[in-house]
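Appendix B, record 7
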Amino acid sequence: MIAPLTDLPAALADAVNAYEASGNVGALMERLHQLRATSTPDALVMAAEPWLHLPEVAGPLYERIVEAQPDNVRAIVLLANAYWLSGRGPEVVGDLAARALALDPAHRGAWHLWALTEGNQRDRTVRWLQVTQRFPDDLLAKAALADNAASLAAAEHDREALAMAIGAYEELWANSPTAEQRAALETALTTLRSYEF
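Structure tokens (predicted):
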């Protein structure tokens, strides 16, 4: 029997509240599996919205949604994100990101997960560079590029990566909305500009 849509958000909220009060993951999983077995995928999508920040909640719900709607790119990306946040690892998350990109090559979240899951530092930096080239206004991707390029420069004494990191941090500085952010970026830039091989 399918639970009415109006009952599902309240039942899900009760399950999450009980979990947050007790920390009992087993009880949460049991309740989530009951709810997803008795609800439509569309109802699960709507009910899950307030809980997307909790991978232990979003993951099981979006497993059911993706199973029922295998071409739902947003659902695939949200499942991949929940898996990443819960420590499922780069292989399974990377496979989901690749699947989402095959369905929608313009989905920014899928590109982020694709870049994030690369294990090799140099290749991950290249992936973040590709994401920033595809989405030039994406400051989160720019920050990931800056951080990865700075790490690569430090680890491998790579001058090209150092220049890439400085350029990315300078662009972030130019787009920073607050004095605090600019100050933090200035500190990073000072460190990078004084780096000696």
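Remarks on this record: Residues 139-156 form the longest helix (18 residues). The chain has eleven helices and no strands.
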